[in-house]
Design a protein that fits this description.
The protein is mainly beta. It has a domain at about 1-40 and about 60-100: Hypothetical upf0131 protein ytfp. The protein is built from 1 helix and 8 strands, in the order βββββαβββ. The strands form 2 sheets. It has a 5-stranded mixed beta barrel. A 3-stranded antiparallel sheet has the order 4-3-8, with no helix packed on it. β3 and β4 (about 50-55) form a beta hairpin. The radius of gyration is 14 Å and the shape is globular.
Length: about 130
C-alpha cells in the first residue's frame, strides 16, 4: 500500500524505466522492491534504444527491477507502453536478488522489432545507454 493507503501494483521494469535510463523518472517516486529476473524464460529484441521482451521464444530470464506503483503511476506506465495495444502488462513470477519470488506485471510486446539480444539484461547490452 502507498503511504496514503492507496493500493499499489507491482511492476517489473527491464528497459528504459530502470535506474540510469531515460524513463526512470516515471517510477522514481515509487517504492523500489528489488532487483531480480523473471522466473520464466523470454526473449528480448532491441530497436534503437527500445527493448521489446516477448514470450515467443523461451531463451533466457529477463533482468530488471520491481516497483510498487500507485494508480496514477500505473496509468502513466500503461500510456507510455501503449497497453494493451503495443505492450501488454502481463503477470509474471520474478525472483528477487534476495531469493523471494513474487508476481509482478511485465510489459510484453505484441510485435517486437529490431535485433535479437543475446541475453536478457538490457543494461549489459552493447551500445545501450
Amino acid at each position: 500500500m502507498a503511504a496514503d493507503g492507496e493500493e499499489t501494483t507491482l511492476v517489473f521494469v527491464y528497459g528504459t524505466l530502470r535506474r540510469g535510463f531515460c524513463n526512470h523518472h516515471l517510477v522514481r517516486g515509487s517504492a523500489f522492491v528489488g532487483q531480480g529476473e523473471t522466473v520464466g524464460r523470454l526473449v528480448m529484441h532491441v530497436a534503437g534504444q527500445i527493448p521489446f521482451a516477448h514470450d515467443a521464444e523461451a531463451a533466457y530470464p529477463i533482468v530488471g527491477e520491481v516497483y510498487a506503483v500507485d494508480g496514477l503511476t500505473l496509468a502513466t506506465l500503461d500510456h507510455l507502453e501503449d497497453h494493451p495495444r503495443w505492450y501488454v502488462r502481463t503477470p509474471m513470477e520474478v525472483r528477487l536478488a534476495d531469493g523471494r519470488v513474487l508476481t509482478a506485471g511485465i510489459y510484453l510486446c505484441r510485435r517486437p522489432e529490431g535485433w535479437r539480444a543475446p541475453r536478457g539484461d538490457y543494461a549489459a547490452l552493447p551500445g545501450i545507454r
